[in-house]
Amino acid sequence: MQPIIIGAGRGSRLNAMTEEQPKCYVPIAGRRILDWALNAFAEAGLPTPVFIGGYQIERIQRDYPHLEFVHNDDWPNNNILASLYYAESHMDAGFICSYSDILFRGTLVRAAVEHPGDIVLCVDTHWRERYTARTQHPEEDAEKVIVEGDRVVRIDRAMAAEEASGEFVGVARFSAAGAERFRVHYHHVRRRFAGGPWRQAAVFEKAYLILLFQEMIEQGETMHLVTTEGQYMEVDTEEDYALANAQWARRIDAGTTTGADR
């Protein structure tokens, strides 16, 4: 099971904090965001991640020579979905991917890996508690999900917050069979829409990962889930940075249960 970290973008909403360093270098509770992610994957017993870099990739390559790198050299012109597919050659045996600006724990990763489903999304069910103080990143921006039992049946930023069961945290796991189906759907859509609008994306290359998830759900694919009840944070804005530094260590110490613990 190959971990893949999607970290090509700059993170301009963090303003001066990313002028001279990659977004994943922003320090939270004394450690870089990237170090928190690497620790979570290591806690789950997974191999060294592949890092998809773009903005300041040379610095990350110098500081983390043990990682395997893939270069998204068109990062200013694409988004998370297209960026992930720069690492397509690493997907064959199954993989688990994560955004590079999130804080999560190894217990959540382990729960996703151990789930018997072919495609598993990680979901925070206490998501609205985190948004009460996020004026710079409102609920409208959340990658919200509706679940039925063990399945995600809809994933969409545009849904009303009151309808949502939780928020996709940016970590997803694919078995070898799930990865193959994921790739089939991606290439089918890319062939039809590359260079033009697709779903909510003005151009296919700027699409978010969740747009393909929703496409797959509508085509009959099953998306399972594991949950974390609050032990996840996103660092997308200066406000998020302050909140994470004030709260993340306390969330870790609190030992809130995850889907792996129930």
Can you characterise this structure?
The chain is α/β, with parallel strands linked by helices and 262 residues long. It has a single domain (2-261), classed as Spore Coat Polysaccharide Biosynthesis Protein SpsA, Chain A. Helices cover 31% and strands 23% of the residues. A hairpin with a 2-residue loop joins strand 9 (144-148) and strand 10 (151-156).
- The N- to C-terminal Cα distance equals 23 Å
Quaternary state reads single chain
> Main sheet?
5 strands, mixed, barrel
What radius of gyration results from the CA coordinates? 17 Å
Low-confidence stretches: 256-262
CATH architecture: Alpha-Beta Complex
Characterize the overall form: globular
CATH topology-level name: Spore Coat Polysaccharide Biosynthesis Protein SpsA, Chain A
Q: Beta-strand percentage? A: 15-25%
Strand order of the largest sheet: 8-11-9-10-12
H and E string = EEEHEHEHEEHEHEEEHHEEH
Question: What's the structural blueprint in terms of helices and strands?
Answer:
Layout: E1 2-7, E2 27-28, E3 31-32, H1 33-43, E4 50-53, H2 57-63, E5 68-71, H3 80-84, E6 95-99, E7 102-103, H4 106-114, E8 119-124, H5 127-131, E9 144-148, E10 151-156, E11 166-174, H6 176-193, H7 209-218, E12 223-228, E13 233-234, H8 238-254
Helix pairs in contact: 1-4
Short description:
The protein is of the alpha/beta class. Helices cover 31% and strands 23% of the residues. It contains eight helices and 13 strands.
Descriptive terms for the model:
262 residues, two-stranded antiparallel ribbon, single chain, 5-stranded mixed beta barrel, Spore Coat Polysaccharide Biosynthesis Protein SpsA, Chain A, disordered C terminus, alpha/beta, 23% strand, globular
